[in-house]
Amino acid sequence: MKLEKPNFAAPVDAEKRKAIPPVICYPPETLEQPDLAALVTLRAGANKTAEAIAAPRDAACIDVPAGAFVRVLSVDGPQVGDLNMWNKHDLTERFYSGKTRALHGTHLSTGGRMWSSFPNMRPMATIVDDTLDWYGFDAFGGSVHDVIGTRCDPYTGRLLSGDDYHYCCHSNLTRALAGHCDLPLREAEMLVHDVLNVFMCTGFTRDTGQYFMKASPVRPGDYLEFYAEIDLIVGLSACPGGDCSSEHSSDVAACYPLVMEVYDPGEAARAAHVQPERSAYDRTHGAG
Questions:
Q1: 220 within domain boundaries
Q2: What does the alpha-carbon distance between residue 142 and residue 204 come to, in Å, rounded to a whole number?
Q3: Which domain covers residue 225, as residue numbers?
Q4: Dihedral of CA 33/37/39/40: which sign?
Q5: In 172-195, which positions are buried (b, 16+ CB within 10 angstroms) versus exposed (e)?
Q6: Structural domain total, the chain
Q7: How confident is the model over 181-205, as pLDDT tens digits?
Q8: 8 found inside a domain
Q9: Mean pLDDT score of the chain, rounded to an integer?
């Protein structure tokens, strides 16, 4: 956070320096664009084959084969979720929220892709449908489905409050991954990482640049749907903040379950899917 009153006087050309227009750091025009029309057609012929429920203040994991779809569905009441993705066959390849943000912006919607960590850096999933795409950005600069927040966790909670809270999204996802993959809890924790905040409405304050949240516009029946580019494990925590209108680690906020549904277009369609290649960078880093 910037100082309210700076320690140093502005130079005479301060306004000129501030007026320099910005440059997009990672222009995405050279990226291969998903064929959304083809994916919509494919989705129309898919059948529901699996379901997992993230109970309030808890998390669940589900396997999604490459070439299938997974829907995150709001049920019962307004609820946000923290979503992780891993390569089913190599858990060290996982969703990279920071690079996804750099390529697609602070909030994701239809057509956005979720990219994996180095050294792989390839699309793990493509967003194909978003019932909250009407929201756009509000007057406060808020929007939904962000990749700017990390996840509520017991370490920051301990730092700020001095208390231990075990049902935050980091801990929920740790328990869920450990159970799903039969891993020791501490090993699973090292694989949990920054998330896509599904349905969460967030932004940055314009005066101080602080990360804010506000009541989510999500309602029962709303969903965000992805196409799996590789074989995935998808983890989802139903945040203890409920709709995050007041706080995000709470035993008193109204919380509701979230549902993950897998839709399979069939073995032939999945076999025809071409999985994205891992990054072709040679990994010599200038040393060889």
A1: yes
A2: 7
A3: 50-272
A4: positive
A5: bbbbbbbebeebeeeebbebbbbb
A6: 1
A7: 999 999 999 999 999 999 999 999 9
A8: no
A9: 96
pLDDT digits (tens, 9 = 90+) for 118-172: 999 999 999 999 999 999 999 999 999 999 989 999 999 999 999 999 999 999 9
C-alpha closest to that of 59 among 153, 167, 220, 150: 167
DSSP 111: T
Tokens of 181: 């993959």
Whether 210 and 204 have beta carbons less than 8 Å apart is answered as yes
Q: Is the peptide bond before 119 cis (omega within 30 degrees of 0)?
A: yes
Q: Is residue 16 included in any domain, yes or no? A: no
Q: How far, in Å, are 81, 97, 239 from residue 57 at the CA level?
A: 10, 22, 6
Q: What is the pLDDT of residues 234-259, one digit of tens each?
A: 999 999 999 999 877 778 899 999 99
Answer yes or no: is 18 within a domain. no
258 touches 52 (CB < 8 A): no
Residue 1: pLDDT band with limits 50, 70, 90: confident
The answer to whether 145 touches 130, Cβ cutoff 8 Å, is: yes
Q: Which residues, in sequence order, are CB contacts of 83 under 8 Å at separation 6+?
A: 72, 195, 196, 197, 198, 234, 235, 236, 237
Give residue 110's identity as a one-letter amino acid code. T
pLDDT at 207 over 90: no
Q: How many CA atoms lie within 13 A of 93 on its CB side?
A: 21
Residue count of the chain: 288
